[in-house]
Design a protein that fits this description.
heterodimer; A: mainly alpha; Arp2/3 complex 21 kDa subunit ARPC3; 8 helices; globular; B: alpha+beta; Thrombin, subunit H; 6-stranded antiparallel beta barrel; 6-stranded antiparallel β-barrel; 12 strands; 38% helix
Chain lengths: 189, 288
């Protein structure tokens, strides 16, 4: 299994920086149905799905740290949440090896929900005095739904950037071998 | 090999979680001049120009989404706004009706004061039914015998004479208008005192005619015609109309100077827009 580690790191860094800047400068200001999308859990979950649990966790930590620094908020908070999201997405791929086209959507939705609930929980644990209200639940639900809409394109975008640097996927290798003749019944004919 | 991979994964995860917790603790523990806060400021210094550039570059996209969002929001508000509009429209209609009624009441009071009709026992009534045909001869009012309204009582509004009651039930009455062809009203030219009888010109229900005046009597356009009241044989032929109630204004005179001269009158009371009227329940008061 050949792994282009420096290239992958470079591409992950590019994806991370672009995601944070896009999130902070544009996405947070685009109100749709009274809420805005959150690219962070989608991108981190996509990285976890594509590159595995360690890469997902590291990416989540780094991007979370960058986000906390850029937004001048409690440092370590987003890192902690996104480490869990990236690791979980990676482990999901490693353990289940899902192949359905709906996986990015389902994982994106679950990652968003987990990140938002986790973030809120830690905020409460840290003593943020805000009532657990219907408004908060509605906000979380709206963001989860909105992220569900964009989860698949975001995954496709991340995949497009990372794919050249990703380790050779045995499934992909198998498929290529099949279609190029090695395993195809047509080639035997 | 597998154990090593698992161990490495767990170590990395543990390190990352621990680092996050350490960062959290350190951030809470340090002052605003501490290392992490300084790092935040440094990152902010670097990122903010990029953010600013990106923000400007993405402004059209933001505006587009904002426009779409506003449109959806506006659609959501549309229902409420329509409901408010309907309520306000109903209020406006009601207020306009009240303003109209207020103006009518004012002119009615003015007429009562000017012509001393308060002594004639005026009973205010609303027109609740109107003859729909072209000739506008009858209206129904919401006062009847229980309010003292009886047949042959004069009916006026703020503009002048309307007609007289020709039929009454306990709660409503029929008023035959001055423009009905059967109506004959003893009238006087207010400026000159010339007396005659006001009726309707055949075929012109909105045009009253003063007739039965001699050829020597001069009547000019613009003069005012009022009721003459009971002028003779008070007990025998009492007029239902008290004296000096305005009927209309002279528009033109046919065959002036002859015994057949006819004075055309435009009635003051608009038969098409009768709403609030007054029934004079006491008829012509003594001496008037």
């Amino acid at each position: 299994m050949r792994v282009a580690i420096p290239q992958l790191v470079l591409r992950l860094a590019l994806v991370g920086i672009l995601t944070v800047i896009l999130q902070v400068s544009a996405v947070t200001q685009l109100q749709i149905f009274g809420t805005n999308a959150d690219l962070m859990p989608l991108v981190i979950a996509a990285v976890g799905l594509l590159a595995g649990s360690i890469a997902g966790a590291c990416f989540g930590f780094t991007v979370g740290l960058f986000l906390d620094l850029a937004l001048v908020q409690t440092v370590g908070l987003s890192s902690l949440v996104y480490v869990a999201v990236g690791y979980w997405a990676g482990r999901f791929r490693e353990l289940r090896d899902p192949q359905s086209a709906l996986v990015p959507l389902a994982v994106g939705v679950a990652a968003t929900a987990a990140a938002m609930v986790g973030y809120s929980l830690i905020q409460f644990l840290l003593g943020v005095e805000a009532p657990v209200s219907f408004l908060l639940a509605r906000e979380i639900l709206a963001t989860v739904l909105l992220n569900g809409v964009i989860a698949t394109p975001v995954y496709a975008g991340v995949r497009r950037v990372l794919l050249p640097a990703l380790p050779e996927d045995p499934r992909r290798r198998r498929r290529r071998a099949y279609t190029t003749g090695g395993l195809s019944p047509l080639s035997r004919a | 090999m597998y154990d090593k991979t698992v161990r490495r994964r767990r170590v990395v995860l543990g390190l990352l979680v621990a680092s996050s917790l350490i960062l959290l603790t350190a951030y809470f523990g340090e002052s605003t001049g501490g290392g992490l806060h300084s790092a935040q400021r440094g990152v902010l210094d670097v990122v903010s120009p990029i953010q600013e550039g990106a923000s400007k570059a993405l402004k059209p996209v933001r505006d587009l989404f904002g426009w779409a969002g506003d449109t959806f929001h506006a659609k959501g508000q549309l229902k409420d706004v329509r409901k408010d509009r309907d309520a306000l429209r109903a209020q406006v209609v009601e207020l306009q009706a009240r303003v109209r009624e207020n103006a009518q009441l004012k002119s009615q009071i003015n007429l009562n004061d000017t012509h001393g009709l308060t002594d004639n026992g005026p009973v205010a009534a609303h027109v609740i039914g109107q003859d729909p045909n072209l000739w506008f001869t009858q209206v129904t009012i919401d006062r009847g015998t229980s309010s003292g309204v009886h047949e042959n009582q004069a009916v006026v509004n703020g503009e002048g004479l309307v007609g007289k009651v020709t039929s009454a039930t306990s709660s409503s009455a029929i008023v035959t208008l001055a423009t009905d062809h059967t109506t004959q009203i003893g009238a006087t030219v207010s400026e000159s005192g010339v007396k005659g009888v006001v009726g309707v010109e055949a075929g012109h229900p909105t045009d009253l005619v003063l007739s039965s005046i001699s050829g020597k009597d001069v009547v000019r356009p613009g003069e005012t015609i009022v009721t003459s009241g009971t002028v003779s044989n008070v007990g025998k032929f009492p007029s239902p109309y008290p004296r000096d109630i305005p009927i209309g204004r002279v528009t033109h005179v046919d065959e002036p100077g002859s015994d057949n001269q006819q004075v055309h009158i435009a009635p003051f009371a608009n038969a098409r827009r009768l709403d609030l009227v007054e029934v004079l329940t006491k008829g012509d008061v003594a001496g008037r």
